[in-house]
Structure to design on (339 residues):
């Protein structure tokens, strides 16, 4: 992902340079406003991407200095999750004379948000605000696809005054209001909210591949003898399908085996020339229940064991976010501002 991050940094630098050249040539206030917004967005992306690249470089240097006899799992990294932010609403407070009596000067401004998770930054459409509104509403959804379990969401609110009811050429400035658990608290010029929460999507597929149901009479035997299964680790379950096509088509799995942070998984060698077994053990109703699935080879059994270890680690990191898979639709592309 580092080359992709480097390309994102270079792209933000190019767009920022273009916006800087375009700004003096803007003949309409609306154009100047959108161009300045682009500058603000690109500045934030350059800082975020540059900081992330430096952090990864420092992590590599620390890893190079680390002793080679580090314990197992020392380099394990939790999987990424998806965070979706939608329907943001900010309540407004007006003076009685302005809102109820409709007196005084009509104040108008253009407002937008920058939202950041890690090195990923998105903006919202610009919203025009005056005293006829009781809330600032940012409709639609913002999607972050590379969030870690300890992610932090940062929200910055920008405002540009529009004197005389028109879009005059004042540039966006950060509102001198701090967004925290309650709005309206006096703060600095940098409006920032650090919010923590769960992702929209728990850990994805940690392992996929073929396993076989054991022959009748073997521990945990279910279904027809030797029936091949295409298995997928997803969220709190090991989903076992009759084929890869059934899994891709979204059909009901032939067998579902619960996988929680308390699940125990081990690979057992097969006796008398038999293939190895992947045993998945859960405690149900005070008793231990083991599903023994036959791997195609010792290497395949080891691959599944490593996939289970990573998946159990992910479950422990994401915690309750893994209990239910949430479907998140890709937001439609935003229309460019009117010329």
């Amino acid at each position: 992902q580092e080359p992709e991050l480097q390309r994102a940094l270079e792209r933000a630098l190019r767009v920022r340079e273009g916006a800087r050249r375009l700004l003096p040539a803007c003949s309409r206030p609306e154009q100047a406003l959108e161009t300045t917004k682009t500058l603000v967005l690109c500045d934030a992306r350059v800082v975020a991407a540059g900081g992330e690249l430096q952090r990864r470089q420092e992590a590599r240097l620390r890893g190079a200095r680390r002793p080679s006899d580090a314990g197992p799992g020392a380099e394990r990294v939790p999987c990424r999750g998806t965070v979706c932010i939608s329907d943001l609403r900010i309540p407004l407070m007006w003076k009685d004379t302005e809102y109820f009596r409709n007196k005084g000067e009509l104040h108008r401004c253009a407002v937008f948000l920058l939202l950041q998770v890690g090195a990923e930054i998105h903006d919202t459409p610009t919203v025009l605000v005056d005293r006829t509104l009781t809330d600032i509403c940012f409709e639609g959804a913002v999607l972050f696809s590379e969030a870690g379990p300890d992610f932090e969401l940062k929200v910055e609110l920008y405002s540009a005054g529009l004197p005389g009811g028109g879009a005059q050429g004042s540039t966006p400035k950060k509102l001198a209001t701090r967004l925290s658990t309650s709005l309206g608290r006096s703060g600095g010029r940098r409006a920032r909210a650090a919010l923590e929460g769960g992702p929209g999507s728990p850990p994805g597929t940690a392992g996929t591949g073929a396993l076989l149901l054991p022959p009748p009479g073997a521990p945990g035997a279910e279904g027809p003898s030797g029936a091949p299964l295409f298995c997928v680790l997803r969220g709190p379950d090991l989903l076992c399908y009759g084929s890869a096509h059934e899994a891709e088509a979204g059909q009901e799995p032939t067998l579902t085996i619960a996988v929680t942070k308390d699940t125990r998984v081990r690979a057992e060698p097969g006796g008398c020339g038999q293939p190895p077994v992947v045993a998945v053990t859960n405690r149900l109703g005070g008793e231990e229940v083991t599903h023994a699935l036959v791997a195609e080879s010792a290497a395949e059994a080891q691959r599944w064991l490593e996939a289970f270890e990573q998946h159990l680690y992910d479950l422990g990191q994401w915690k309750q976010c893994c209990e239910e898979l949430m479907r998140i639709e890709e937001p439609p592309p935003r229309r460019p501002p009117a010329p």
In short: The first strand starts at residue 81 and ends at 91. The chain has two domains: 2-48+78-195, 208-322. The CA atoms of residues 281 and 334 lie 48 Å apart.
